[in-house]
Amino acid sequence: MFRALADICKAAEQGNISFWEAIMVNDCKDRQLTKEQSFAQMQAMYQAMKDADAGYDANLVSASGLVGKDGARLQQYVDSGKAICGSFMGKVMEKAVKMGESNACMKRIVAAPTAGACGVVPAVFIAMQEAYGFSDEKMTEAMYVAAGIGGVIASRAFIAGAAGGCQAEIGSASSMAAGGAAYLMGGDSTAITHAAAIAMKNLLGLVCDPVAGLVEIPCVKRNVSGAMVAISAADLALAGVESRIVPDEVIDAMREVGVQMPACVRETGEGGLAATPSGVKAKEKVFG
């Protein structure tokens, strides 16, 4: 596994291959797979994301009763043509909520990189495929880009809210989606890595404060924020806007911020939104 985004860029340049191919080659080496085997597994993972999106059940509510049905409400609103963000961004929002709710309702999702952040990457990727007509093969290549970015973050910092707050989950997912989106729109290694860095910077310091200790509130709606940040970060990078802080240093900064966060806002459900009067009431309602 690569430990730096710069190393992926270097491997791609030295091998005269694309960013995603450098990640695939590394995966084949690490797991002793053929390129065909690796690609098939990654494509199956993307298909699982699409299946989860298509299998959203508008009637399901989580066991706690805290989340459910908002994806359907959002879909109806977007379809009405009234969404301020427009139809494309509206679809991204809708898919992010649906995936987050499906996770809370114990349906099959793909952790990307975690279950709590499962809505960001598929919301961006599936919406882009539907809007631009990318093939499943092209989307699989974008999945490698996202996976490579996530792998670097996991090895260089962390992807768990308990370790580094929600910046490690939604922030990482947003970086992964941003890099993948930049790749899909023709971005080179520079655009990919700077898109990832910009997304992470915009979510730096995000705490993990789940109400009642459940991955529901505010987790589901934060998937929407992560997806929206990812798309804006990709557009910035594609326009030639670069992160003034070196991308790998942004990841390092996320780690340092996470280490400094108090335990009450690292997935313990003891601080932040979880400690508000509304949050406490919700917890009492769930657990009695």
Write the layout of secondary structure elements.
Layout: H1 5-15, H2 19-31, H3 35-54, H4 70-79, H5 86-104, H6 120-132, H7 136-156, H8 161-164, H9 170-184, H10 189-202, H11 219-238, H12 247-260, H13 277-287
Annotation keywords:
13 helices; 288 residues
Question: What does this protein structure show overall?
Answer:
The N and C termini lie far apart (45 Å). The model has no long low-confidence stretch (mean pLDDT 98). The radius of gyration is 18 Å and the shape is globular. With 288 residues, it is an all-alpha fold.
Total domain units: 1
How large, in whole angstroms, is the Cα Rg? Answer: 18 Å
CATH architecture: Orthogonal Bundle
Name the helix and strand elements from N-terminus to C-terminus, one letter apiece.
Answer: HHHHHHHHHHHHH
What is the gist of this entry?
This protein is an all-alpha fold. It has helices at residues 5-15, 19-31, 35-54, 70-79, 86-104, 120-132, 136-156, 161-164, 170-184, 189-202, 219-238, 247-260, 277-287.
